[in-house]
Amino acid sequence: MKSRPFSEDFIKRALVTWTRMAAEGKTNLQVAERLGCHPSMLHYWNSIAPVKGWPLGPVRRQAKPKNARHHSEESKRRAVSALLNRGELTVAEVARGLGVSIALLYRWMRLSGVPNTKVGHLRSKQVDTEIERLGAKRDRLLVEASVLRQTLALLAG
Protein backbone atom coordinates (compact mmCIF):
# COMPACT_ATOMS: atom_id res chain seq x y z
CA MET A 1 0.00 0.00 0.00
CA LYS A 2 1.45 3.33 -1.06
CA SER A 3 1.82 6.13 1.44
CA ARG A 4 -0.10 9.27 0.59
CA PRO A 5 -1.06 12.41 2.46
CA PHE A 6 -4.65 12.45 3.67
CA SER A 7 -6.74 15.61 3.71
CA GLU A 8 -8.60 16.64 6.84
CA ASP A 9 -11.88 16.19 5.02
CA PHE A 10 -10.93 12.61 4.08
CA ILE A 11 -9.92 11.84 7.69
CA LYS A 12 -13.23 13.17 9.05
CA ARG A 13 -15.18 11.05 6.57
CA ALA A 14 -12.95 8.05 7.36
CA LEU A 15 -13.70 8.31 11.09
CA VAL A 16 -17.44 8.46 10.41
CA THR A 17 -17.16 5.50 8.01
CA TRP A 18 -15.11 3.56 10.56
CA THR A 19 -17.80 4.12 13.22
CA ARG A 20 -20.56 2.99 10.85
CA MET A 21 -18.66 -0.10 9.66
CA ALA A 22 -17.67 -1.08 13.21
CA ALA A 23 -21.35 -0.94 14.18
CA GLU A 24 -22.01 -3.34 11.31
CA GLY A 25 -19.44 -5.74 12.81
CA LYS A 26 -16.61 -5.06 10.36
CA THR A 27 -13.01 -5.40 11.58
CA ASN A 28 -10.50 -2.57 11.56
CA LEU A 29 -8.62 -4.36 8.75
CA GLN A 30 -11.76 -4.43 6.60
CA VAL A 31 -12.39 -0.74 7.27
CA ALA A 32 -8.78 0.16 6.44
CA GLU A 33 -8.91 -1.82 3.18
CA ARG A 34 -12.13 -0.04 2.21
CA LEU A 35 -10.54 3.35 2.95
CA GLY A 36 -7.22 2.47 1.33
CA CYS A 37 -5.06 3.08 4.40
CA HIS A 38 -3.16 1.11 7.00
CA PRO A 39 -5.22 0.03 10.08
CA SER A 40 -2.82 1.88 12.41
CA MET A 41 -3.83 5.14 10.72
CA LEU A 42 -7.38 4.70 12.03
CA HIS A 43 -6.12 4.65 15.62
CA TYR A 44 -3.77 7.55 15.00
CA TRP A 45 -6.55 9.67 13.51
CA ASN A 46 -8.82 8.74 16.40
CA SER A 47 -6.15 9.81 18.91
CA ILE A 48 -5.80 13.29 17.39
CA ALA A 49 -9.51 13.77 16.63
CA PRO A 50 -10.41 15.42 19.97
CA VAL A 51 -7.62 17.97 19.57
CA LYS A 52 -8.67 18.82 16.03
CA GLY A 53 -12.38 18.81 16.80
CA TRP A 54 -13.05 15.90 14.44
CA PRO A 55 -15.68 13.22 15.03
CA LEU A 56 -14.44 10.26 17.06
CA GLY A 57 -14.21 6.76 15.66
CA PRO A 58 -15.86 3.84 17.45
CA VAL A 59 -15.25 3.77 21.18
CA ARG A 60 -14.68 0.30 22.50
CA ARG A 61 -14.80 -0.41 26.19
CA GLN A 62 -11.92 -2.38 27.51
CA ALA A 63 -13.15 -5.70 28.79
CA LYS A 64 -12.63 -6.43 32.47
CA PRO A 65 -10.16 -9.26 33.04
CA LYS A 66 -11.93 -12.53 33.74
CA ASN A 67 -10.05 -12.95 37.00
CA ALA A 68 -11.01 -9.45 38.29
CA ARG A 69 -12.73 -9.57 41.65
CA HIS A 70 -14.84 -6.97 43.38
CA HIS A 71 -14.08 -6.42 47.05
CA SER A 72 -16.70 -4.90 49.34
CA GLU A 73 -15.90 -1.85 51.45
CA GLU A 74 -16.17 -4.01 54.56
CA SER A 75 -13.59 -6.50 53.27
CA LYS A 76 -11.26 -3.62 52.38
CA ARG A 77 -11.61 -2.20 55.93
CA ARG A 78 -10.89 -5.65 57.42
CA ALA A 79 -7.82 -6.00 55.20
CA VAL A 80 -6.45 -2.60 56.27
CA SER A 81 -7.13 -3.50 59.91
CA ALA A 82 -5.32 -6.83 59.46
CA LEU A 83 -2.41 -4.95 57.91
CA LEU A 84 -2.15 -2.50 60.81
CA ASN A 85 -2.49 -5.24 63.47
CA ARG A 86 -0.28 -7.83 61.79
CA GLY A 87 2.19 -8.35 64.66
CA GLU A 88 5.32 -10.13 63.41
CA LEU A 89 3.95 -10.83 59.91
CA THR A 90 5.33 -8.96 56.91
CA VAL A 91 3.07 -7.05 54.53
CA ALA A 92 3.68 -9.75 51.91
CA GLU A 93 2.53 -12.47 54.29
CA VAL A 94 -0.65 -10.54 55.16
CA ALA A 95 -1.36 -9.97 51.44
CA ARG A 96 -0.77 -13.64 50.64
CA GLY A 97 -3.10 -14.65 53.48
CA LEU A 98 -5.84 -12.36 52.14
CA GLY A 99 -5.30 -13.43 48.54
CA VAL A 100 -4.56 -9.91 47.25
CA SER A 101 -1.45 -8.12 46.01
CA ILE A 102 0.75 -5.94 48.20
CA ALA A 103 0.05 -2.97 45.93
CA LEU A 104 -3.71 -3.44 46.37
CA LEU A 105 -3.32 -3.51 50.16
CA TYR A 106 -1.32 -0.29 50.08
CA ARG A 107 -3.93 1.32 47.76
CA TRP A 108 -6.74 0.40 50.15
CA MET A 109 -4.70 1.77 53.04
CA ARG A 110 -4.08 5.06 51.17
CA LEU A 111 -7.76 5.36 50.25
CA SER A 112 -8.82 4.73 53.85
CA GLY A 113 -6.67 7.67 54.97
CA VAL A 114 -4.17 5.70 57.06
CA PRO A 115 -0.68 7.23 56.76
CA ASN A 116 1.78 4.91 55.03
CA THR A 117 4.36 5.44 57.79
CA LYS A 118 2.43 3.14 60.12
CA VAL A 119 3.27 0.16 57.94
CA GLY A 120 6.84 -0.88 57.23
CA HIS A 121 7.72 -3.74 54.93
CA LEU A 122 9.77 -5.74 57.43
CA ARG A 123 9.48 -3.85 60.72
CA SER A 124 9.14 -6.13 63.67
CA LYS A 125 8.58 -5.40 67.36
CA GLN A 126 12.36 -5.66 67.93
CA VAL A 127 13.04 -2.95 65.36
CA ASP A 128 10.31 -0.74 66.84
CA THR A 129 11.77 -1.23 70.33
CA GLU A 130 15.26 -0.34 69.08
CA ILE A 131 13.94 2.80 67.37
CA GLU A 132 12.21 3.88 70.60
CA ARG A 133 15.38 3.18 72.63
CA LEU A 134 17.56 5.21 70.25
CA GLY A 135 15.03 8.08 70.24
CA ALA A 136 15.10 8.20 74.07
CA LYS A 137 18.91 8.12 74.02
CA ARG A 138 18.98 10.99 71.52
CA ASP A 139 16.65 13.06 73.72
CA ARG A 140 18.85 12.38 76.77
CA LEU A 141 22.00 13.43 74.87
CA LEU A 142 20.32 16.63 73.66
CA VAL A 143 19.45 17.56 77.26
CA GLU A 144 23.03 16.80 78.38
CA ALA A 145 24.46 18.93 75.55
CA SER A 146 22.16 21.81 76.50
CA VAL A 147 23.24 21.59 80.16
CA LEU A 148 26.92 21.52 79.13
CA ARG A 149 26.44 24.60 76.90
CA GLN A 150 24.75 26.50 79.70
CA THR A 151 27.49 25.49 82.18
CA LEU A 152 30.19 26.58 79.74
CA ALA A 153 28.43 29.92 79.21
CA LEU A 154 28.26 30.49 83.00
CA LEU A 155 31.96 29.65 83.47
CA ALA A 156 33.05 31.80 80.55
CA GLY A 157 30.99 34.81 81.42
Fold topology:
Elements: H1 8-23, H2 28-35, H3 39-52, H4 73-84, H5 91-98, H6 102-112, H7 125-156
Helix pairs in contact: 1-2, 1-3, 4-6
Structural class: mainly alpha
Order of helices and strands: HHHHHHH
Shape: elongated
Uncertain stretches of 5 or more adjacent residues: none
Distance between the termini: 94 Å
Rounded Rg:
31 Å
User: Tally the helices: what do you get?
Assistant: 7
Average pLDDT, all residues: 82
Helicity level: 55-70%
Number of domains: 3
Major sheet attributes: none
Number of strands: 0
- What proportion strand? under 5%
Brief summary:
By secondary structure, the protein is an all-alpha fold. It has helices at residues 8-23, 28-35, 39-52, 73-84, 91-98, 102-112, 125-156.
Description:
The model has no long low-confidence stretch (mean pLDDT 82). The protein has three domains: 8-52; 75-118, Arc Repressor Mutant, subunit A; 124-157. It is mainly alpha-helical. It has seven helices and no strands.
List the main descriptive attributes of the protein structure presented here.
mainly alpha, 157 residues, 7 helices, Arc Repressor Mutant, subunit A
